Amino acid sequence: MKNVLNIIIAISSITTVLAIILQQKGSGLSGVFGGSDVSYMTKRGAEKFLVVFTIISAVVLCASALLILFV
Fold first, then answer.
1. Burial category of 57 from C-beta neighbours within 10 Å (exposed 0-12, middle 13-18, buried 19 and up)
2. Are 44 and 50 in contact (CB under 8 A)?
3. CB distance 19 to 47 below 8 Å
4. Whole-angstrom Cα distance, residue 25 to residue 69?
5. Phi then psi dihedrals of residue 59, to 5 deg
6. Rounded distance, CA 66 to CA 18, Å?
7. Residue 13 CB: number of other CB atoms within 10 A?
Protein backbone atom coordinates (compact mmCIF):
# COMPACT_ATOMS: atom_id res chain seq x y z
CA MET A 1 0.00 0.00 0.00
CA LYS A 2 2.84 2.39 0.81
CA ASN A 3 4.43 1.73 -2.56
CA VAL A 4 1.21 2.69 -4.35
CA LEU A 5 0.90 5.86 -2.28
CA ASN A 6 4.53 6.76 -2.99
CA ILE A 7 3.90 6.39 -6.72
CA ILE A 8 0.75 8.53 -6.47
CA ILE A 9 2.70 11.20 -4.56
CA ALA A 10 5.49 11.21 -7.14
CA ILE A 11 3.13 11.46 -10.11
CA SER A 12 0.88 14.09 -8.54
CA SER A 13 3.85 16.21 -7.46
CA ILE A 14 5.31 16.17 -10.97
CA THR A 15 1.96 17.05 -12.54
CA THR A 16 1.38 19.83 -10.01
CA VAL A 17 4.78 21.39 -10.72
CA LEU A 18 4.27 21.13 -14.50
CA ALA A 19 0.78 22.64 -14.28
CA ILE A 20 2.10 25.55 -12.22
CA ILE A 21 4.98 26.15 -14.62
CA LEU A 22 2.59 26.19 -17.59
CA GLN A 23 0.54 28.95 -15.95
CA GLN A 24 3.41 31.47 -15.88
CA LYS A 25 2.87 34.36 -18.27
CA GLY A 26 6.33 35.88 -18.42
CA SER A 27 5.65 38.69 -16.00
CA GLY A 28 8.95 38.08 -14.23
CA LEU A 29 9.27 39.23 -10.65
CA SER A 30 7.15 42.33 -11.12
CA GLY A 31 3.98 40.37 -10.35
CA VAL A 32 5.40 39.30 -7.00
CA PHE A 33 5.77 42.87 -5.77
CA GLY A 34 2.51 44.16 -7.21
CA GLY A 35 3.97 45.78 -10.31
CA SER A 36 1.78 43.88 -12.72
CA ASP A 37 -0.41 46.04 -14.92
CA VAL A 38 -2.61 43.18 -16.11
CA SER A 39 -6.24 43.54 -15.11
CA TYR A 40 -8.16 40.51 -13.89
CA MET A 41 -10.12 38.70 -16.55
CA THR A 42 -12.20 35.54 -16.50
CA LYS A 43 -10.41 32.37 -17.40
CA ARG A 44 -11.70 30.50 -20.43
CA GLY A 45 -10.80 27.44 -22.42
CA ALA A 46 -7.42 25.86 -21.87
CA GLU A 47 -6.45 28.34 -19.16
CA LYS A 48 -9.50 27.42 -17.08
CA PHE A 49 -8.78 23.71 -17.58
CA LEU A 50 -5.20 24.25 -16.45
CA VAL A 51 -6.31 26.05 -13.27
CA VAL A 52 -8.82 23.32 -12.40
CA PHE A 53 -6.25 20.61 -13.20
CA THR A 54 -3.73 22.31 -10.91
CA ILE A 55 -6.21 22.45 -8.05
CA ILE A 56 -7.21 18.80 -8.46
CA SER A 57 -3.60 17.68 -8.70
CA ALA A 58 -2.66 19.65 -5.57
CA VAL A 59 -5.60 18.18 -3.63
CA VAL A 60 -4.58 14.65 -4.68
CA LEU A 61 -1.00 15.38 -3.61
CA CYS A 62 -2.05 16.69 -0.18
CA ALA A 63 -4.56 13.89 0.40
CA SER A 64 -2.10 11.16 -0.51
CA ALA A 65 0.61 12.75 1.65
CA LEU A 66 -1.76 12.83 4.61
CA LEU A 67 -2.95 9.29 3.90
CA ILE A 68 0.57 7.90 3.91
CA LEU A 69 0.96 9.14 7.48
CA PHE A 70 -1.79 6.80 8.67
CA VAL A 71 -0.75 3.73 6.69
1. buried
2. no
3. no
4. 36
5. -65, -40
6. 22
7. 16
Q: What angle do CA 66, 69, 70 make, to 5 degrees?
A: 105
Beta strands in 1-57 (DSSP E): none
What is the phi/psi pair of residue 33, to 5°?
-100, 10
**pLDDT tens digit sequence for 6-65:** 999 999 999 999 999 988 765 545 455 555 555 666 777 888 899 999 999 999 999 999
**For residue 71, pLDDT beyond 70:** yes
The per-residue pLDDT for 31 is 53
**Predicted local confidence at residue 21, as pLDDT:** 92
Q: Give the DSSP letter of residue 42.
A: -
